[in-house]
Design brief:
Length: 162
């Protein structure tokens, strides 16, 4: 099955999983699990960092090994995606200036910023792979779509995380 076909199967499952649910932590946990389980050979770490302070991201639900608790604005791939306001694909984390190495097993990374309908930043979806160059434009497009579905369904729940 191609990468695109895997996403085409996964996206409606995620949409059904989160529809009408009001437990934000549970939703984020299940979305990370669904992504991690769909791509176990590719996705070493899948999780969310949420903006709970003005200048920091705080660790949210995830699947994978232990992770950093906080990431400052503009620092690492997650902080830089927040600063720049768009998805970042990093083919080799060793070549990314200021990369925050929560695990030495991480070799490539994709980070998708999460915005609500008022374009208020809420956090990021962060995915790491043990393989260099593992993320491409298909991942970017499909993961941005999943984050869009997620934000549409959970927007009102984020007010508790400010």
């Amino acid at each position: 099955m191609t990468r695109k076909e895997q996403y085409e199967q996964l996206t409606p499952q995620i949409a059904a999983l989160i529809k009408g649910e009001k437990n934000l932590v549970g939703i984020l946990a299940n979305v990370s699990a669904a992504l991690h389980d769909t791509f176990p050979e590719r996705f070493f770490w899948v999780g969310f960092y949420l903006q709970q302070d003005k200048d920091r991201l705080r660790l949210g639900p995830f699947q994978g090994s232990v992770a950093c608790y906080t990431i400052p604005y503009g620092k690492g791939v997650c902080g830089k995606a927040w600063e720049e306001g768009h998805t970042l694909i990093v083919p080799d984390v060793d070549d990314f200036p200021g990369h925050i190495a929560c695990s030495s097993l991480s070799r490539s990374e994709i980070v998708i910023p999460m915005y609500d309908s008022a374009h208020t930043f809420r956090g990021v979806l962060d995915i790491d792979s043990t393989r260099p160059g593992d993320f491409n434009e298909t991942d970017k497009e499909e993961l941005e779509h999943i984050v869009g579905l997620l934000m549409k369904e959970t927007e009102s729940l984020f007010r508790f995380f400010r």
